Amino acid sequence: MNDTSRSFPENLARMHEHEERVRFASIEKILSKGDFCDHVDAIHDSLDHLFLLLQEDFPAGSEQHTLQLLAIRVFNSGASSLKLGLSGYFQAGFQLIRDMLEIVNLLDYFSLFPDKIVHWRSADATVIKNEYAPVVIRRALEQNQRFSNQRRDKPYRLLSEYANHPTYKGFLLVSPNNSPRLGPIEDEGLLNAFLEELAMHLVHCTLAASGMIECHDIDRLKAGLIYVDRLRAYYEKHIRGPSGARTS
Description:
Layout: H1 10-31, H2 34-53, H3 63-86, H4 90-112, H5 116-121, H6 125-131, H7 134-142, H8 153-164, H9 188-210, H10 218-238, E1 239-240, E2 245-246
Antiparallel strand pairs: 1-2
């Protein structure tokens, strides 16, 4: 039963109203920029394709079900990151992008060693630290010929330094034009950088998941192929080669 004598704090309600105003301004800015629209379309297509992959029914505890659980985390991280970024919380949005980097590395590792899915799922904390820690997975990928020309440590290190770890450099994400801001920020440069990073890494995650999660429904398979084609077209236009370097 609700306590009618209590009310939601007015300052929190006003903060939400301000966040919504920033979100509206972000959307207006996106609609005025072709590249911004491309990034948002890629984010949308990625989330839609992940949703399709999650409609398949696999037994709980199976390898395919485990991959779906990872896809759920990708979807939730991607959608949450977008919500934060559009509302002007860029640093928090970037933090979730690093989460997707860890997931895609794990997915690519499982594509090389599918038997490791069962082992990872049942591993204790010590095994996770020694065999599946982010740095261990990155090094394993770099030592494999399929991924040897990729420097996955660089984007991970940058996101850690500027977003996830409390560093002085990270204050750049809350100080556009050297002016520190409290709360939501409206800034075109930060919005562009955020959308680029989110789209790039979410596309990478989605393509990795799509390559591993089986699809048995014909209609979903056809729809999925359309999404994959669009995501690959985005990848070709905005990202240069397998290293993930931008075209601009």
